[in-house]
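Lecture 7 notes: from sequence to structure.
We start with the chain below.
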Amino acid sequence: MERDPLRLAWKTKPARHLLGFLLLTLAGFLLLVGLDLVRIVVDRAVGGGGLPDGPGTFLRIVITPPDALRADPLVLFPGFGLGPEAFALAAVGGLILVPVLIALLLTLLDWLAVGIGAGVLARVRAKVLDAVLDAPASSQDEIATVTSLAGRALARESGVLGAALLAPMQLGGMIGLAFAYVLVTDWQLGATLALALAVGGVLNARRLVLRLDAVRARHREGEAIDSAFADLGHRIPALRAHGTAPFERDRVGRALTHGHHPVETREFRMAPADSLAAATLMIAPLAVLAVGVWFAPGRPITAGAVAACILAASLAAFGVRELVQWQHIVNRAQELLADIAESLIGLQPRETHRQGAALPESGALVAQGVSAYDHASGARISGVNLTLAFPSHVALVGDGDAGPRVFAALVGGLLEPSTGRLTYGGTDLAAASPVERARRIALAGETVLIPGTLRDNLLYGCAAAPDETDGRLWDAIAVAGLDRLIHARGLSGTLNPRREPKVAAAIVDSRRAVQAALVEENLDRFVDPFNAERYNRYATIGENLLFGKAIGDTFREDRLGSHPFVRAVLEAGDLTKPLARMGLSIATSMIEIFAEIPDGHPLFERFGFFSAADRAYFEDLVERRNEKRRGAQTARDQERLIGLALRYNESRHRLGLLDEAMEARILAARADFTRMLPLSLKPSIEFYDENLFCAAASVQDNVLFGRIASDQAGAAEAVQKAIRRVLTERGLDAEVSRIGLGTPVDIQGSDLTLSEIAAIDVVRCLVRRPNILIVQRALEGLPGPAADRLVANLRRAMIGRGLVLITPEITAAMDQPPFDAVIRFERGEPVLDQRRREPEALSA
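Predicted structure tokens for the same chain:
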């Protein structure tokens, strides 16, 4: 990769640079015009107290040679002869128009620089991306380093990349043109400016070096002080025990003074350099003025020429300062590019034979003296010599799954052999590109969930044509047994009736059919329907109070207890104190139940009424209330306790805090809530209506118009089965599954079981239609019958193709028909092929 920012920028966008040079040329011409306009206007104003009535020459450029040459002035451009009015308009208008035109040209130049910078960034990051994607599996540390450099570090320096070449050309061109104008006007003024700029450039460069040295000294001082205070913190117990505070104060004070001394020395040294650098650049235009005044009596230097030269000298001095600073920025960017280039070299595969060889559709998988170590699990295999002919179905068992999993990771490309060679169909697997390897040999191992929907996760890595994707996806879902999960997620998902009015209307129309089916199968006892006159036993107190679903954050569950309108309704129904007492009972019970369970435990996160961050607050609140201290309950405490009570569900939490009398009072408060709801708050909630689709509620709530009994074993499964049958009869099952596929997935997997997460990786592999499928973790956590069913599905789906199953043991149901080979690993070596008992299946 190119390490010089200037060459990198030029190679990335040469055409844009040429256009930029053209813009700079035009801007330079306008700069010369502007300087000469200053000369003309000042001369005419000084000569006649204003613009005279006689004709004048506009933009005449003349070189005045030194007296020693005794030559006539050299006219570079004769100028334009204009009348007095035209001259006045041209001069004054030009003074206004030239800066505006230069600003427009520089704006275009900046836009070009932005485009160039974007191209350079894309080029560098593309190289990094390619290197990361092609990096060996063992290069995690190198990948972390180069991605860090290409991320924040490169973003911080991205401003210099687009203008790396254009900015020095702009500044250098301004300096050169300004100096040339002064030199052409009078060689003595030009010599004076050259000397001033040279001295100013040297001093500014020196100032920058001293500043960098001071910055490094401050960093060293900070490290020394951190070390001193860390050591002091380590000595605190001894300091308290032995009373050595005076000694430590003197010791640390000396360390602080000693650490700051190099910084102080460099700052003293930097102060005169700063002042001299600034003074020299300020002196540049003053020196031109002084020389111009000194030699004015003996030379034809007009007041306008001196004024224009002063302006040119000021621009040149400013350019020198900016050019020195810009060079420092470019050097910093060059160091970063060099670091990225070095990191990319470290990411290159160590093997020289990796050239993207094509893999056959079938053949023998041969391991010759293969050894490997998995740093993540600590498992290893050594000296494996193994031959497996594909297509075939093979089981790798034993060794606590460690040996089989390491071997599977080797074949799947997650690990690289420490020694030995692994070939498939005579082709070295290390010589195949990762894409080709994954297309032929798919590994369902550790599932990495990605942000997006469930469909995005299931199709991750699928490159099939769009018209084939859905067919492959549903076939793979059926094999992996995820169809029930997807349907359940669809029922728990939501539907926008404005976008899909026909589907929403069909779901509302299916309510009565579902209710009739539940009655027919005696499953209606598992559902408590929504009724404005009845309390729903399987909804929380807050849900019963609203009798609808919140839209947005206004009536969100965790904010419900503190909402002013809700508090007013509760106060009117005399429910504030009873709900606060209920909340206190809930907090007390939760603290007792989860006393031995640490923060972050799944049980606490799932069943606790409050988060781990609020645990200490409620513990303190309960302790204050138990001690009955005066003023123990604040308004905030009451809001938090009411919030707990509103999330209470008797059928689920079973703390015995809700009776029929309290339910009746909540129903009365519900009526007040509905009747008194202000118009401004009505868009924040959607009430249940048996004849309408509730967009804020789940599809299941809309289909059932009620809640499934949460305290009845098997209720949810039985009811959802009946729902699915009715929806299938009405052609809505596919719509519900589509909604399920469109639900977002938590990348931490908190909304999925471990077996469901593993099944997602199986689906990812199946949709690619690989020649060999390696199933590494999909059987974990599955009960025996479910595992047998999954293996049977996989074996039917992979008929005529290769299947490698990793399992501690194979059951009789899995072994029908018998596996072509069962390889048992012990202490990292395959010791027996239970089917063939042939030498090639044994470790050498």
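Points to note: The longest strand covers residues 363-373. Residues 48-55, 836-844 have pLDDT under 50 and may be disordered.
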